[in-house]
Specification:
nine-stranded antiparallel beta sheet; alpha+beta
Length: 241
Amino acid sequence: MLSLKEEMYSLFSEGEGTGILALQVLELVREVGDSVKRLEGRIEDLSGKQQEIVSSFNSLSQGMSSNFEGLTEQTGLMEEKVEKVGKKIDVIRSEVRLISQHKLTWQNTTWDDVYHSDFAVDGVYTKVATHGGSSSNPMQKSGQSPIKGNILLIDLGGFFKIHTIKLWNRLDSNDRFANGVLIYVDEQLVGSVHDVQKLYNFRVNPEVYGKKVYLKQSLDQVINFIEIQVFGSGPYSPDEL
């Protein structure tokens, strides 16, 4: 069997026309060879780029894996810190403390537009037995006309567990106005006044929670106190109960 080169020589020897054809075939073969070489070069380039892409992807994967591990570790540390803060907050919230002082108040009527409900939570309660005018021991007093249904409200500003409610009665001869007062936490009755004392202490049942404390007069007379104190713990969310 003849090689390509030997076949070319044979064609040249057969005549001029055949020789020209042989030259054309030879040129075509060269072009094909060059094209094959260029294609091989491109394939090598693509192979090299493919390896670079694979290498870059592997590096990126390793970096992402490392970052993810670091993020997981940071998340774990953050969860531990949040848990510690949560425990500290729970300890603080569990403390029984005064939760009514300087809170928002309201009463449905006010005597002479002077003895406002805010005096009941101003933190002032002394042994001074005068409570009008420029007294250093001011008081709260409802209704110009003594009628049944006078109401005093203290908004605690949150949802608290109520422990104790203290009513500091006025110290002069009109201390009888405390009689007939009913004490509510939200809608739950927690105490009532039926005698005359200087200080009333109402220890509330353990599972009483609320946002507001109401005093309602059940008799035809005013509500009249120097100070009202609510002690409790919290605030809590209703979902926690």
